[in-house]
Write a structure and sequence with these properties.
The protein is α+β, with helices and mostly antiparallel strands. It contains 11 helices and 13 strands. A hairpin with a 2-residue loop joins strand 8 and strand 9.
């Protein structure tokens, strides 16, 4: 009952049972939507403390996307649950309740022994209602069967003795319910929007369907067959809005990203490794263009050409360019080559004489 209006509200009962022991689990929800259906399933497995080999749900849209004689397609959230618990989901054929007679019988049983019992009181919250459900269900599970010859004795005894030893253990961690968002096509910018942020997916998926799954800490993106493509940490910051993995970018986008990632300060810092003259040279190159960005390629060319060259030679070449007021990539390259050649020649010539050695013969040896 709504305490503000006094109006009675309709609720929905989620219920499960086990094949042999018939142990019952029931929980009340305000509707039958996906989050509540998944939550009910998780709570039921937690109540059993184990996982059956098979889960046999109704063919409701919350669990099953398509089920025909030729094909079974589970709803992606339910498919994730199947993977997490390492179980097998096998809905019976549509419109054939005899495919799951145990739970169908217990639906009728609970209409009498649970619903009618609940009707004796009025509840003002789901918490109070579920507390009453828990108490009634516990009594049902402990209640002895009418037939004295029934080897199960009670539902709980049958579960502990026969069902649970044959079930699998629960996973070590809790199942995390995701928020699902479906995309008919990955847009041309290969980013999917969630909570005002945009998360990248490999650019080759442009135009293809995709599923985005959001938890409190992570964004997972899957293809139309629910196969994981990539993951991103979930962002809550106002900036940046685009969360991009460089590996998802096409080559042309990656090129421009690398170019734009380096500004004038970056090239000045790089030049400082070689000394003041190189910093002056780079600074003049950056100032020589109408727009600084137009000089980035020249700066990169100058600094890359200094690779594997001794710093003192680079500094000498930069000094000559600054003194000549010719701070350009082409001029620097020529000067650096000239400085290197001069250094090589002086190293070879030395004093102008060959070193004295017994194995070195002069021109007299060839007369």
């Amino acid at each position: 009952m709504d305490t503000t209006t006094g109006e009675l509200q309709k609720v929905h009962i989620f219920t499960t049972t086990l094949g042999f022991s018939s142990l019952v689990y029931a929980e009340i929800f305000p509707d039958e939507k996906l989050p509540h259906f998944i939550t009910g399933t998780v709570h039921a497995l937690s109540y059993y403390g184990a996982v059956p080999k098979y889960l046999v749900p109704d063919n409701l849209r919350t669990a099953v996307t398509r089920h025909s004689k030729d094909e079974l397609v589970l709803q992606s959230a339910f498919s994730d649950l199947e993977t997490f618990y390492d179980t097998i989901i096998l809905p019976p054929p549509p419109r054939k309740p005899k495919g799951k007679p145990t739970v169908e019988n217990h639906v009728r049983f609970l209409e009498t022994h649970l619903v009618e019992e609940l009707k004796k009181d009025t509840y003002t919250s789901l918490e109070a209602l579920n507390a009453a459900v828990k108490k009634i269900v516990a009594d049902i599970n402990q209640r002895p069967f009418q037939k004295k010859s029934d080897i199960r004795k009670s539902r709980m005894n049958g579960f502990e003795k026969y069902d649970k030893p044959r079930m699998n253990q629960l996973p070590g961690e809790s199942y995390t319910l995701c928020d699902y968002k479906y995309f008919l096509k990955v847009p041309d910018n290969y980013h999917l929007e969630y909570d005002a942020h945009y998360y990248s997916v490999l650019y080759t998926y442009k135009g293809k369907p995709a599923i985005l799954k959001a938890t409190m800490t992570e964004i997972r993106i899957c293809d139309e067959y629910n196969r994981l493509i990539c993951r991103h940490p979930r962002s809550y910051r106002d900036f940046p809005l685009y969360i991009t993995d460089d590996g998802h970018m096409p080559p042309e986008h990656l090129y421009y990203k690398e170019v734009n990632a380096h500004d004038g300060a970056y090239y000045r810092r790089w030049a400082s490794v070689y000394g003041e003259s190189m910093v002056t040279l780079i600074d003049r190159i950056l100032r020589s263009s109408k727009h600084e960005e137009q000089a980035y390629n020249s700066c990169a060319g100058v600094l890359h050409s200094c690779k594997d060259v001794p710093h003192r030679l680079v500094q000498e070449a930069a000094e000559k360019c600054v003194e000549a007021n010719a701070c350009k990539y082409s001029y620097f390259k020529k000067v650096l080559s000239m400085v290197q050649n001069n250094h090589s020649s002086s190293a070879i010539n030395g004093t102008g004489k060959l070193p004295s050695h017994t194995n070195i013969r002069g021109k007299e040896a060839y007369k």
